[in-house]
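Sample A.
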Amino acid sequence: VMESGITLIDGGRLYYRGREVADLAARSTVEEVAALIWTADEAKAPTLFPLEPLVHSQRIEDVSPFVTGLPPVEVFQVLLSLSAAEDPAAYDLRPAAVARTGARILRLMTNVAAGEAATRIAEALQRGWSPGDPGAAALLGSALVYCADHELPVSTFAARCVASSEATPYAVVLAGLAALGGVKHGGEVELVEAFLREVEADGDARAAISGRLRRGERVPGFGHSLYPDGDPRAAGLLSLTAEAYPESPAVSLSEAVAGEALQLMGERPTLDLALVTIARTLDLPPGGATALFALGRTIGWIGHAIEQYEGGSLIRPRARYVGEQPG
């Protein structure tokens, strides 16, 4: 559909700008991966993400209490719209300026999710979501890196379409969030959460999966069309989670479900199951798994916006008319 220099999916492996994502998740910070995707240079991370906390406007401070209790992704949508109206620098669509705007957007979203001012993204989420577990920051950071981009799923394509009109990066991210909320994209995370609750209630992973198959229902969280041999993002994150929290009931549950799904369906876990496993392991707040997905993927949306702005072309496909002919 279009060219991109950000993500390569090849041979069941995933790369950002030629770097294998598994290596980035293990060795690089979220900020470094954002700088890599946006500028092709990890070393620019300290400039893009200064240690000084992001200061919110009075309008955002005034509105924030009224969105308390909404799912995090919906709060992102409300507050990003307000912030866009107060950020005239966002209209500067040169690559370096868009990267700076992207950093402001990502830090705002982190502040919203964590409930406190962010200096370093993964650490802020850990303090807000798992304050008693400093080790959670590494796992959360790895999850954000694995979520950062995935070529052209519907949310990224929507984001690029909006960028092609030369709307601001805020509009690009809002478009991505709107698509992410659909049940066939980010909404899959909520389906996995419901399925795992069903397995817990049955007390038998095999019976829960078999019951869905008998009823002709889909088993969410398994099988990805781009990865016949298994989603490397899920494999990497589930391995990291099991390594860090070997005694976690959530890890045991996911392993049991994954084993039965492989035997009964020949399918392996997707990123959605891995995110829910992390959320359950770390006892994240409601909507935390989807918020983690959205935060990570925002990095990719900004990267694709930079590419689209640089290309300067408007995405305007044609439809094949199949209706009644005139006359």
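Sample B.
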Amino acid sequence: NNMVHIIKADTLEVLYEINIEKEDERFSISEIYLNKDKLILIGTSHLNLEPIVKSSEDEKNSLIARVNYVSSAKAIVYDIEDKKEPKNIREVALEGRYIDSRMIGENLYLISRKSAFYYDNTEDYTILPNIQDTVLGEIKSIDCTDIAYFEGTKNNSFMMVGSFNVNNDEEVFVETFFGAGELVYANEKNLYLTHSNYLYENE
């Protein structure tokens, strides 16, 4: 039920219950990392926004409403040095669906995938992916010139790979690609992402 319990193993005493439910956001946990005194919750955030309502060009008196929400791959970092009083010290979100993550040493790698949906009269900022980092204190949009492109890709999605150290306040480092991956493998030096190409032959 979107809660994390810190339990003393020998007595099964519940020391603390972390409730991550917010009024305008639904967060689904997919992974949990424990790195010394840092607890990191990983998952997908669904943020509900005000619906977009526009007048139809065909019928002046009619209105078109589109549900407006943002999905992000999100990492929430807690300081649990005091197990009875955990502190939320940082949140990092990459717009899109959560794909996978890795923890190598003190560095967390978070991967998201966002489809590049286009509607009539769509503004650029609604297509390009965004970053949220409490260190930044604001939402940051990825510029087109900072997006790499895989030649020949047929996948109309953005893939974002964000990395940050859970023990300092340096801004999250993000690489963005057009053409998303699916499976992830990592070692101490490299991160690999694969993508499937499906070939269909006419019968």
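B remarks: Helices lie at 124-127. The chain is about 0% helix and 55% strand.
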